[in-house]
Write a structure and sequence with these properties.
The protein is an alpha/beta fold. The protein folds into 3 domains: 131 residues, Rossmann fold (3-Layer(aba) Sandwich), CATH 3.40.50; 124 residues, Serine Threonine Protein Phosphatase 5, Tetratricopeptide repeat (Alpha Horseshoe); 154 residues, DNA Cyclobutane Dipyrimidine Photolyase, subunit A, domain 3, CATH 1.10.579. It has 19 helices and 5 strands. Strands 3-2-1-4-5 form a 5-stranded parallel beta sheet, with helices on both faces. The longest helix is centred in the middle third of the chain and has 22 residues. The radius of gyration is 23 Å and the shape is globular.
């Protein structure tokens, strides 16, 4: 759609384009703020849908439905800032550079600003966009918006990348405390609105609207209210209750974080304001939650430094030798929540009904699949990506590789959770299991599809053999 130019364009004024990706928010959005600073006359916002690429990357209906829901709320916010939100669709990343160039030229934008993304396909796409724009003398800027600290700047004393979380966390926290938290970035309205916003589609090509988004209100006031409620309530006891699926002990902000509808700095700022920058002096609850946000940054960090993680490869190369079992019946029983192991089945049923699963249960269900069933972690990773409303590639990949003992800082292969002991410890009254396993197909009436102890021993042996086969 061509720009409306009825007011004319001053020779010394500039227009900019903000290309939104995983930063679907107005506040604390570095790319948007940069576009506003560069475009002193007007700013245009653009979101490019790539449904075939999304399919290839494993996205499912819940994730796409939530994203479109967030886009509708974002469009309303942008309109109040006199920034039109345009929607374009191509099938593949390889087609994006031409679309970006066309929109920039249509609206006489001299610079394109975007938030940084992680993954080898995303990196190649952005290089192509930069080259295409440069050939037409249009600038291209990438801004760190998913991590509080640039991933290149966190190094060992030898200048190498970290592969273990604890030393990474120590270095991250030292840099964070040294630099401080960025001030709140609250945009002001543009002088003029160049064109009208496009209508946000109800669904994307090849995807269906998912009913699970009824569980999640995507509006900005809703997510801010959820954050405020958590920080004033459950955050105080987060260190004690975060592993309890029977309690409301977590923030449940992951769907908004996954699409960038809320920024990590927005999450941390109230705590910094309250407790200061000395993280070790924070109360245990908020401190533990802050560390969980650093885990999120760590998984993006290793995704940057280990490109093979974007290609379905394990970080621990020797685990490529594990003889995974081809067990379709076991996999389907796991997907359906019909394994006969109550806590595993309850977690899988929570996922099916809400598009979300408690983090402790993500570990339990993933370890059951990869150890007790000895099924390749990549099958589980893809099932989660297609089922989660909060699907986030770096975090999903990192969590699965942790549970499968194939990734960064992974659980030792001989450490296999017992879902029965996990249930006693984290669902002591059985409330969570009863709530999700009620009905005619109650797993209590299903015989377990495997015996836990023999399959645990089988998994440990398979990993030992893989290590021997890999060699020294």
């Amino acid at each position: 759609m061509p720009a409306h130019r009825g007011l004319g364009k001053r020779a010394d004024s500039m227009r900019s384009l903000v290309w939104l990706r995983h930063d679907l928010r107005v506040n604390d959005n570095p790319a948007l703020m940069a576009a506003l600073q560069a475009g002193d006359e007007a700013v245009v916002a653009l979101f490019v849908m790539t449904p075939s690429q999304w399919k290839r990357h494993g996205w499912g209906n819940p994730r796409v439905s939530f994203l479109l829901h967030v886009l509708r709320s974002l469009g309303e916010e942008l309109n109040r800032l006199r920034i039109p939100l345009l929607i374009r669709q191509v099938q593949w990343f390889s087609e994006v550079s031409g679309t970006i160039l066309q929109v920039a030229r249509d609206h006489q934008c001299t610079i394109v600003c975007a938030g940084r993304e992680f993954g080898i396909d995303e990196l190649r796409r952005d290089r192509a966009v930069a080259q295409r724009l440069a050939s037409h003398e249009i600038g291209f800027q990438l801004h760190a918006d998913q991590t509080l600290l640039p991933v290149e700047e966190i190094r060992t004393r030898q200048g190498k990348a970290y592969s273990v979380f604890t030393p990474f966390k120590k270095r991250w926290e030292a840099l964070f405390q040294e630099r401080g938290l960025p001030e709140a970035a609250l945009p002001t309205a543009c002088r003029q609105l160049l064109t009208t916003s496009d209508k946000i589609p109800q669904a994307a090509e090849g995807f269906e609207r998912s009913a699970v988004i009824e569980c999640w209100n995507a509006s900005p006031p809703s997510v801010q209210e959820r954050l405020d409620d958590f920080l004033s309530g459950a955050a105080k006891h987060y260190h004690l209750q975060r592993d309890r699926p029977d309690l409301q002990g977590t923030s449940s902000l992951s769907p908004w974080l996954a699409v960038g509808a809320i920024a990590p700095q927005t999450c941390l700022r109230p705590l910094v304001d309250r407790y200061g920058m000395s993280l070790d002096r924070w109360p245990d609850g908020p401190r533990t939650w802050q560390v969980e946000l650093v885990w999120r940054e760590f998984y993006r960090y290793v995704m940057h430094w280990q490109p093979r993680l974007s290609m379905g490869r394990p970080m621990q190369a020797w685990t490529d030798q594990v003889a995974w079992r081809d067990d379709d019946r076991g996999f389907q029983a796991w997907c359906a929540g019909c394994t006969g192991i109550p806590l595993v089945d309850a977690g899988m049923r929570q996922l099916a009904a809400t598009g979300w699963m408690h983090n402790r249960l993500r570990m339990v269900t993933a370890m059951f699949l990869t150890k007790n069933l000895l099924i390749d972690w990549r099958r589980g990773e893809r099932f989660f990506s297609q089922s989660l409303v909060d699907y986030d590639f770096p975090s999903n990949n990192g969590g699965w590789q942790w549970a499968a003992s194939t990734g960064a800082d992974a659980a030792p292969y001989f450490r296999v959770f017992s879902p029965l002991l996990q249930a006693k410890r984290f669902d002591p009254e059985g409330d969570f299991v009863r709530a999700w396993n009620a009905g005619d197909s109650n797993p209590a009436a299903i015989d377990p599809i495997v015996e836990l102890q023999p399959t645990r021993r089988r998994a440990i042996l398979a990993f030992k053999e893989a290590r021997v086969a890999f060699g020294p």
